[in-house]
């Protein structure tokens, strides 16, 4: 029986990357007087690196910042996190089309919900509150709660522990190959809902790959149960 659904956040709950994180990264570079402006295409290539701080550090090294790259990346990332949080609090971040209907249906069906993300709690919590509201999620695990980021399964294992459920009772909803790897490594059946940055990726092991939550065959509570049943 499907007893809970665990959602990723970035690119899954909301299309945060191109219109949220990217401008915040570029504004942080400018604030630190670093002559770097990531284009949407460059940023898409960097998304294979999980964690914003690690993403910055890797690009700094590639550009010749050999000394102190980690320390500089940490400082830029703190600024970026502050700017992104301010953007969420000021302008909000709309949920992906069809997500709210899915959440409403899961709740009505008595299926619990959780989040497993490697994003920072500072911005994850206000984003979730603004997109999903209060008292919807039973468990929220962020990158602040784990040592290993995706594709390592630690964030999913912690979410399962928080729910008090075995992996066989849960379905994950992800948007990327990295997230899929993390969920599968934790033994969780997974639906991938792609976005503009991940639509061309390969998803071996996914139980379904969809272009969106809505459409002629939306991802609803019944479909979640059917996909979970097919796996188990």
Description:
The protein has nine helices and six strands; from the N terminus they run βαααααβαβαβαββα. The protein has a six-stranded parallel β-sheet, with helices on both faces. It starts with a strand and ends with a helix. The chain folds into two domains: 4-14 and 93-231, 3-Layer(aba) Sandwich (Rossmann fold); 17-91, DNA polymerase, domain 1 (Orthogonal Bundle), CATH 1.10.150. It is an alpha/beta fold and 232 residues long. Pfam families: Hydrolase. Keywords: Hydrolase. This is HAD-IA family hydrolase. GO terms for molecular function: hydrolase activity. It comes from Mycolicibacterium komossense.
Q: What's the short story on this structure?
A:
The chain is an alpha/beta fold.
User: What strand line-up does the widest sheet have?
Assistant: 3-2-1-4-5-6
Q: Architecture of the largest domain, according to CATH?
A: 3-Layer(aba) Sandwich
Number of strands: 6
CATH superfamily of the largest domain: HAD superfamily/HAD-like
Just give the CATH class of the largest domain. Answer: Alpha Beta
Q: Give the helices and strands as they follow along the chain.
A: EHHHHHEHEHEHEEH
Q: What is the 3D form?
A: globular
Query: Uncertain runs with pLDDT below 50, 5 residues or more?
Result: none
SSE-based structural type = alpha/beta
Number of helices: 9
Mean pLDDT: 96
Strand content: 5-15%
CATH-defined topology of the largest domain: Rossmann fold
Question: Quaternary status of these chains?
Answer: single chain
